[in-house]
C-alpha cells in the first residue's frame, strides 16, 4: 500500500511542479501573459576577428520550447526547456557552428522551474521605484556544473503589445512545413517575401530586451531579460477573488453574529424553560413567543425593577 501511494505521488509531482504558464496572481493582482506565447528570441553578438559569436536567447513564457525533427536533437535545447541560449560561432569562411547550448530554465532532467513571481511595485528596491509589472524568476537549468536561472521582468507599457520587433520562432511541424514549401519553390520564380513592417526594428525598440548574462557568481549563472508589454499593466486585469474578501467581509460577520445570537437565544431559552418550568423533551424546552418577557428579570437591574414598581 505504501509503495502504491509513493507511486501515485511520484506520478503527480510533475503536475505540481509544472512550467510557468503565463498566468500569475500576486498581491491580489492577476496577470495573463498568454498573448506572448512563444517562443521568441533576442540575439546578442560579439565580434573577435576572425570570428563572430552570436548567442540566441530564446524564451517561451507559456510553456516548453518544442523540439523540431528538422534539426539534430544535440543541436537543440533539452526537452522541457523554457528559456535557453544557443551560442554560434561564424569563422572567416562563413561557416557557422554551434559552440554552446545553455539550458537556462525549465523542467529539465528531473529539475523543476520552481518559478517565483513578485509584483515589482511591492519591491523595496530603489531601482524598482516607478516601475509597474511583475518579476518572474525561473530555475531548473544546469550548465558546466553550475545552476542556471532566468529573471524576466515584464514591464508595463500601455503602448506596446509585447511583440514589437519580434519574430515568432517556428516549432515542430510548422518549421518543417515551411521548409517543404521553400523546397518546392526552388528552381521556379519565388515570390518576394513579405516582411512585417515591425520586423527589423532596432534592439532598443524591441519589446523583448537582453539585459545581461552574469556568470560571476560561483553558485549560479543568471540571465536577465526585460519584456515591455501592456499585458503587464495592473489595470488590465485584476483578480476578482482578491476583492471578494473585502466585499463579503461585512456580510460574513453579520451572518456569524446573527447565527450566534439565535444560538444564544435558543440555548438560554431552553435552559430557562427547563429550570423554571420543568420543561422536558426537545419541543417543550424550546423558547416560545413569551420567552423574551421571561428574560426581563435577568436583563433588568434591581434598581430598574424598583423604579418600575413605583409607577
TrEMBL record:
PROSITE patterns registered for this protein in UniProt: MRH, PROKAR_LIPOPROTEIN
Region Disordered, annotated ranges: 165-207
Broad class of where this protein is predominantly found: membrane
Family of the protein in this entry: Belongs to the ATG27 family.
Subcellular location: Cytoplasmic vesicle membrane; Golgi apparatus membrane; Mitochondrion membrane; Preautophagosomal structure membrane
GO process terms (BP): autophagy; protein transport
Domain MRH per the UniProt entry, residue ranges: 20-235
A GO cellular-component term linked to this record: Golgi membrane
PANTHER family noted in UniProt: AUTOPHAGY-RELATED PROTEIN 27, MANNOSE-6-PHOSPHATE RECEPTOR FAMILY MEMBER
Signal peptide: 1-18
Bilayer topology term: Single-pass type I membrane protein; Single-pass membrane protein
InterPro entries: Autophagy-rel_prot_27, Man6P_isomerase_rcpt-bd_dom_sf, MRH_dom
The protein's name: Autophagy-related protein 27
Residue ranges crossing the lipid bilayer per the database entry: 248-268
Keywords from the UniProt entry: Autophagy, Cytoplasmic vesicle, Disulfide bond, Golgi apparatus, Membrane, Mitochondrion, Protein transport, Signal, Transmembrane, Transmembrane helix, Transport
Amino acid at each position: 500500500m505504501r509503495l502504491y501511494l509513493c507511486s501515485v505521488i511520484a506520478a503527480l509531482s510533475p503536475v505540481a511542479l509544472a512550467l510557468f504558464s503565463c498566468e500569475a496572481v500576486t498581491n491580489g493582482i492577476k496577470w495573463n501573459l498568454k498573448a506572448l506565447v512563444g517562443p521568441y528570441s533576442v540575439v546578442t553578438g560579439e565580434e573577435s576577428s576572425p570570428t563572430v559569436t552570436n548567442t540566441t536567447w530564446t524564451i517561451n513564457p507559456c510553456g516548453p520550447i518544442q523540439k523540431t525533427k528538422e534539426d539534430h536533437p544535440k543541436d537543440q535545447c533539452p526537452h522541457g526547456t523554457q528559456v535557453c541560449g544557443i551560442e554560434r560561432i561564424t569563422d572567416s569562411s562563413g561557416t557557422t557552428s554551434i559552440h554552446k547550448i545553455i539550458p537556462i530554465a525549465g523542467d529539465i532532467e528531473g529539475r523543476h522551474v520552481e518559478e517565483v513571481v513578485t509584483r515589482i511595485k511591492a519591491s523595496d528596491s530603489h531601482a524598482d521605484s516607478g516601475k509597474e509589472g511583475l518579476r518572474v524568476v525561473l530555475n531548473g537549468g544546469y550548465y558546466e556544473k553550475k545552476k542556471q536561472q532566468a529573471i524576466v521582468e515584464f514591464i508595463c507599457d500601455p503602448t506596446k503589445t509585447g511583440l514589437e520587433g519580434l519574430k515568432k520562432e517556428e516549432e515542430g511541424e510548422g518549421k518543417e512545413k515551411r521548409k517543404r514549401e521553400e523546397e518546392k519553390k526552388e528552381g521556379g520564380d519565388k515570390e518576394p517575401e513579405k516582411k512585417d513592417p515591425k520586423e527589423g526594428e532596432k534592439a532598443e525598440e524591441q519589446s523583448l530586451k537582453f539585459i545581461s548574462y552574469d556568470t560571476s557568481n560561483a553558485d549560479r549563472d543568471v540571465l536577465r531579460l526585460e519584456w515591455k508589454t501592456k499585458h503587464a499593466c495592473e489595470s488590465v486585469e485584476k483578480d476578482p477573488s482578491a476583492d471578494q474578501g473585502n466585499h463579503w467581509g461585512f456580510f460574513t460577520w453579520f451572518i456569524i453574529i446573527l447565527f450566534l445570537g439565535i444560538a444564544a437565544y435558543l440555548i438560554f431559552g431552553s435552559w430557562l424553560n427547563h429550570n423554571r418550568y420543568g420543561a422536558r423533551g426537545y419541543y417543550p424546552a424550546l423558547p416560545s413567543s413569551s420567552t423574551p418577557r421571561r428574560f426581563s428579570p435577568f436583563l433588568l437591574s434591581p434598581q430598574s425593577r424598583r423604579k418600575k414598581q413605583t409607577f
